[in-house]
Amino acid sequence: MASPATDGDLGRTLEYIRQGRDRFLDDLTGLCRLESVSAWGRSLRETAQAVAALLERAGVEVAIRETAGQPVVIGRARGRTDRTIVFYNHYDVQPPDPLEAWVSPPFQPVLRDGRLYGRGTADNKGNLTARIQAVEAWNRAGGGLPVSVAFVFEGEEETGSPNLGPVVQENADWLGRAEGVVWESGYRDADGRPTVSLGVKGICYIELRARGARSDLHSSQATLVPNPAWRLVWALATIKDGSERILIEGFSDAVREPSPADLELLQAIPDGAESMARNFGLPGLLGGLKGVAAHRRNFFAPTATICGLNSGYTGPGEKTVLPSEAMAKLDFRLVPDQDPEDIQAKVRAHLQRHGFGDIEVKVFAGERPARTDPSSPFVALVRSAMRETYGQEAIVYPTMTGSGPMPVFSDLGLPVAGLGVGHPGSAVHAPNENIVVEDYFLGIETVATLLARAGATP
Fold first, then answer.
1. At the top level of CATH, which class does the domain 7-200+370-456 belong to?
2. How far apart are CA 93 and CA 52, in angstroms?
3. What is the mean pLDDT of residues 344-366?
4. pTM (2 decimals)?
5. How far apart are CA 160 and CA 69, in angstroms?
6. Which CATH architecture has domain 202-255+302-367?
7. Handedness of CA 87, 332, 71, 51 (dihedral sign)
8. Which residues contact 43 (CB under 8 A, 6 or more apart)?
9. Angstrom distance (rounded) from CA 50 to CA 67
């Protein structure tokens, strides 16, 4: 049996990371130049191959698994013990629109004021490369990995991960024996404290479309011709009221109330309401919420969000037009034990009940929520590594407020913890996405330390 990693091995690994900063940052920059927008369907295979090349350079055995959509990159590297930690990430990114809001082009990453700007820097290529680079450092300078590692990198997370589940199931016999999964994203909070998240919200993403005449008309025809834009607005107004209440019948019936342990976690989370509002350029949060009340709503309340609206003429100047159709994209963030299929059925029934059965409903994506027990030994291990790297306790969030395919791993009985290199101003899914460069290297060091402590744990 190989001898366990020592603090000296970890020290050499961390020194390798510090000496390799320029090259490691170049790796990330090169990956972010690839326009791997899953909604566009281009550059994804090229990006999968680039990720596979980074893994191979790090000493990882790689297989690219074909799916009905984009490839899933599977990596495995044997350590000094068979104990395994899984890293889940995705190499696809969100569309960069609106382009005019970017200070620099989204796929031409640039360093500015200590930050790296570019689409995918925070979500999710920064976390992806940081984990590969930690493994490379152990293999090149630390005398080999303290524990075995596995990588599962997909290219469809931003479009609902429709093909990830079967790939994970094909590998469930060995993935299911892992210690736990390090999730794709994580951030410092508004006051700079590291955080770890223990779950995800689910999501139901839909499109609503109202139709009128066969083509746009002169707006003078509004006396006799129905306006689908108004019809869609009236339908949307039945879904949520001005007090932020979701009005879909039965929408919250399955919502699980937070447990005493959940509420205890909320008590330990710093307020941060003023910092968050300030970072977003707002006078305050919705309803003036602060402290535990804000945290409870943020982590344990479902949402109904209009993500986009389009109808008629929206260019400069005037055009008096009666539009022929109107479209809205909505997402519903779900909490345990809501189910996306049940929610989309309730949306259809709600529209029918309120006289809007003519409005078309198209379902794009659905994912269930997932949670990890905060008392899990894997969570304690992650928190220990973060404490060692950052010199302070990580703030534990009971769940992320975003969504992702975590159930494909939690259904195997695996604990999942999210930690990473972002910060509150990372502008994820928005123009001018960025990470703080120093946070990036702390992220690499955190993963390297996690592997060391996992190898030392009985």
1. alpha beta
2. 17
3. 96
4. 0.89
5. 11
6. 2-Layer Sandwich (3.30)
7. negative
8. 34, 35, 36, 37
9. 18
